[in-house]
């Protein structure tokens, strides 16, 4: 028996719970067979072994003597074909139901799969009424349609593929940082700072009033506290002892934007690098992070990626290949404004030096760069938060900040060198009326300050970009956005 098939996955506790509704003799029989994931059964080259699989029925086809099932357990895109004699066919077997099946793994006569399970026992663990079930047996459901069922959409091929890719990408990102000697820091979810200074904060207070909060003592934490918009400032504190740190966790923005690339809760990958002296040091890490993670996905999730590249965003593989093959472009913000002003495109927002790039501008710049990701550097100083390093250039006063723009999405990463010079930082904070709030941040510059910088990459936007997904709500298990918090 193949090693993969030999791997016993189930605990007896889980086993007895799942089989609670079948008769005792069947349960004993089933228990003695080895529980195997569909993914491992499909890879098995040794046939003839008795195995047991647990999963959900993706299709049922009855013939005169046999019934054919496809069973999925989330471990692979491809289901396992199960063949059973018609008299084994339980009455309540249907599309969508949960099953526990024991049988012999045999070579399949069909060219569509190597192996199939010839069932000796089929237990329906959980029934499913296919008439009421929102997904239909042969239905091609769009991402938009399945989005209406956030509690059920993991049962579709498309969303289960997305979730496997998301899980693998998470692993790949952690591996990237580990392989490059970054230390992972768990930055707090609840914080008293507004790192980006944009005021897009969710405030955190207890729901009830057992704490007797009143006008004199209005806050649970004594100060106003918020869900984090970025772990950057905490990472900067850690950069005082570690040359390279990162964090990867949920981030919250109370943005009133209902766009296809904004969420109120999203995951951000943030890195901070001490002794970084130029934006080049940051751009090099961003490009390698993007390419190493994508390369990992293409080799570990080939089938799932193909589902997106072939069927959900046809032709998108070419775009991914282009991004992987070519060096990312670099242009300055000032050059970008020139490019926009020289174009014949009719923009809704007129491009102007000193104003933020709008989505339509970002899209145009990426196209102008041959649909290869592009770093836009050195933004107007006044557009960037207090922490961005002053380039001290005249007359076009800029900050050492960089955004990475990518096809289909626009801004994927935002980063900067941080102002490490105490007096310049003190002045900027005082101008913004923040010097008292950030005394601890100023202290970081008093004691062993070094040039440093970092960036944040939106994880859901990354998935949009490598899979060609139009709407960010289709990249996260449970999307939160303004006016919607379902489940
Ligand atoms: O450009 P941002 O705001 O940068 C920061 O927060 C820095 N403090 C990060 C750092 O330097 N450590 O956000 C970084 C990225 C954006 O480029 C975008 O990809 C993503 O986070 N992002 C969002 N993704 C989904 N929904 C939103 N509302 C997002 N806002 C930002």
From TrEMBL:
InterPro entries named in the record: Aa-tRNA-synt_II (IPR004364), aa-tRNA-synth_II (IPR006195), aa-tRNA-synth_II/BPL/LPL (IPR045864), Asn-tRNA-ligase (IPR004522), Asp/Asn-tRNA-synth_IIb (IPR002312), NA-bd_OB-fold (IPR012340), NA-bd_OB_tRNA (IPR004365)
Coiled coil: none
Signal peptide (residue range): none
Entry keyword Heme: no
Residue ranges of every copy of the Aminoacyl-transfer RNA synthetases class-II family profile domain listed in the record: 163-477
Annotated CDD domains: AsxRS_core (cd00776), EcAsnRS_like_N (cd04318)
Cellular component GO terms, alphabetical: mitochondrion
Top-rank taxon: Eukaryota
The EC number(s) this enzyme carries: 6.1.1.22
Alphabetical UniProt keywords: Aminoacyl-tRNA synthetase, ATP-binding, Ligase, Nucleotide-binding, Protein biosynthesis
GO molecular function terms attached to this record: asparagine-tRNA ligase activity; ATP binding; nucleic acid binding
Annotated GO biological process: asparaginyl-tRNA aminoacylation
Classification via PANTHER family: ASPARAGINE--TRNA LIGASE, MITOCHONDRIAL-RELATED (PTHR22594:SF34), ASPARTYL/LYSYL-TRNA SYNTHETASE (PTHR22594)
Similarity remark: Belongs to the class-II aminoacyl-tRNA synthetase family.
Protein name stated in the entry: asparagine--tRNA ligase
Organism: Clarias magur
